[in-house]
Amino acid sequence: MTALTLSTATAPGVRADAIVVGVAKGSASGSGDLVVAPGAEAVDKAYDGKLAGVLQTLGASGTEGEVTKLPAPSGFKAPLVVAVGLGAEPKKDASFEAEALRRAAGAAARALAGSKKAAFALPITDAGDVAAVGEGALLGAYSFDTYKGNSGNGGSAKGSSTKGNSAKAKNGKAPLAEVTLLGAKSRDRAHKAAAERATAVTEELNRARDLINTPPNDLNPEAFAAVAQAAAKEHGIKVQVLDEKALEKGGYGGILGVGAGSASAPRLVKLSYTSAKAKKHLAFIGKGITYDSGGISLKPAGHNETMKCDMSGAAAVFAAVVAAARLGLEVNVTGWLALAENMPSGSATRPGDVLRMYSGKTVEVLNTDAEGRLVLADAIAKASEDKPDAIIDVATLTGAMMLALGNRTFGIMANDDAFRSAVYEAAVEVGEGAWPMPLPDHLRKGMDSPTADIANMGERYGGGLVAGLFLKEFVGEGITWAHLDIAGPAFNESAPFGYTPKGGTGSAVRTLVRVAELAASGDLG
Q1: Are 435 and 515 in contact, with CB atoms under 8 Å apart?
Q2: E-strand spans in 293-389?
Q3: Could you say which of 178, 196, 222, 268 would form a disulfide bridge with 117 (CB–CB 3.0 to 4.6 Å)?
C-alpha cells in the first residue's frame, strides 16, 4: 500500500524520485497564461522565476489533470519535477477547491507509477487541503495487478489479495510507494488527523476496488463473505453470515430466488460496528451480485463482460463500515451485504415465477435481470427490524440511471426530501458526482400485478425511478431511507482520469463515510 507522510521540508532538499507542483490557467489578468500554484515557490525560484514559461514552451496549458515532466534544477536532490494541471486559477483571495486538488494529486500519482517516493508541493493552506491532496494521491496510486504476469500456479487464482494496492506489479510498473506532502505539518494535530483519515478511507476504498476487480470465478458469495469475516475480526466488527440454509429458514425469498440458478449459494452478511458514545444508528445495505448474467432473461452479447462489478454496492458498504470502525466514529453503523450470483440453469427463477419475500410480500418476477431490487428488498426489510435512524442502500441497479445521468454521476432517491438533500450535500462535499432524483407516485401503478402484491418491473421510461419505488415498498414504517443508484460511476470502462482508475472505482464509499461522520457529530439534519 502507498504510504503517506507529512513534511515541512523545502522542495530542493527532499530526497525523492520527483517533486510534484501545480500549475493553473491564469485568470487574474484574463490572459489565460500559465501560472505556478502556491506551494511551488521554491521550485519556481530555482528556475529563476521562469518555471511557467519553461512549462508553456513544453506545451503545458494548466488543463485539469495534464501532466508535464522536466528535469529538476541544479542542486535539487530529486531528479525530476512533475507539473500537474489544476484547471482555472481561483479568483482573488480564494483557494483551489478540494476536488481540483484531489484530481491533480491523483493524476500525478498515476504518472509516477514505478517510483519509490514523490514529494507533493501542491497548495496546502489547511487540514482540508492535506486531506484532499492525500486522498487524491493515495487513490491515484492504486493498481490492481493480482492476475498479471506468470505466477506459475495456473488456473484460477483463489485466495487473491483484496487488501488494497498490489505490493508489486507482476507485469508493468508497481504503484508509487510513498507520498510526502510538503507544507503539511506532522506535529499539527489537524494536519495529522487529516492524513490519518485520508489513509483509512482510501485504504478501504481501494479494498473495495480490489473486490470489484476480482473475477467472479474467484469472488462468489461465499468468498466475499469470507473476506468480510476476516476484516471484521481484524477491526473489532461483529459479523453474522446467513448461508443458504439460514436464508431458507428465515424466508428470504428474494435472495434465494436470485441465487437459485447458480452453483454458488447466496449469502446475507451483517456487519455491526458499534460505539459506546453513539446516539444514532445507520444501516447501509449493498447489492452484492457477484456476477450477473441476467438469469433466464439473459443479457445480450456485449453486456456481460463487466458484470463482475454488480457487487459494487456491497463492496462500498463493506468498505464504509470498516472505515467507520477504523476512524472510531461515534455512531452505530450496520452494513448488510446481500450476496448472490445470478445465473441461468434448470433451477433458476423464471419470468412469471412469484417469490415470497422476507417481509411477507409476494413479487411476480417479470424479468430475472431486474434481480438487484429483489436481494435489496429482503435486506431492507430485515434491516428495518432494528429500527435504525436511517437506511441507505447502494446498488448498481439500473441502466436507466446511466442513460439519465451518464457514467460519472449516481442518482439519489429517498422517502424524505431533507434526507435526500443531506446525502447529496455529503456527496458533493467529498467530491463524488451525484444528483437528487424524484420518486413520482404515478410510476408505482405500473408495477401492479394480477398475480402478486407487486411486480419487479414497471413502466419502461423512468426505469431507475421505478426501481427506487419498488425498494421503497420494503422500507419499515417511519424509517428514513435513501437509495443510491451507482450504475454509472461504479465501473470505469474508459481511460483513467484524475484519481479514478480503469475498472472498479469504489463509488459511494466516501459519501457513506461522510454521512456516518455527520450522523456522529449530530449534523446530518
Answers
A1: no
A2: 332-342, 354-356, 362-364
A3: 178
Query: Binding site annotation covers 310?
Result: yes
Which of the residues 163, 185, 192, 299 is marked catalytic? 299
DSSP, residue by residue, 49-108: T-HHHHHHHTT----TT-EEEEEPPTT-SSSEEEEEEEEEPPPTT----HHHHHHHHHHH
Q: What is the largest CA-CA distance in the chain?
A: 80
* Of 86-95, 143-152, 319-328, 397-406, minimum mean pLDDT range: 143-152
H-helix segments, 141-215? 189-213
d(CA 243, CA 248): 9
> Which of 86-90, 165-169, 304-308 is the least confident region?
165-169
Distance CA 94, CA 101 (A): 14
pLDDT band at 169 (very low <50, low <70, confident <90, very high): low
Active site residue 510: no
Which one-letter amino acid corresponds to residue 144?
A: F
CA–CA separation, 372 and 286 (whole Å) = 10
On whether the CB atoms of residues 471 and 373 are closer than 8 A, the answer is: yes
Reply yes or no on whether 514 is catalytic: no
Cβ distance 474 to 254 under 8 Å? no
C-beta of residue 355 within 8 angstroms of C-beta of residue 365: yes
> Tens digit of pLDDT for each residue in 197-252?
999 999 999 999 999 999 999 999 999 999 999 999 999 999 999 999 999 999 99
| 287 marked among binding-site residues | yes
312-327 vs 189-213: helix crossing angle, rounded to 10: 150
Report residue 482: phi and psi, to 5°: -135, 150
Give the 3-state secondary structure of residue 295. coil
DSSP state of 361: -
369 among annotated binding-site residues: yes
The Cα–Cα gap between 79 and 64 comes to 24
Q: Which three cell numbers, joined as nine digits, stand for 203?
A: 485504504
Q: Could you tell me if 319 and 164 are in contact, meaning their C-beta atoms sit under 8 angstroms apart?
A: no
Catalytic option among 117, 270, 373, 444: 373
Q: Is 218 annotated as a binding residue?
A: no
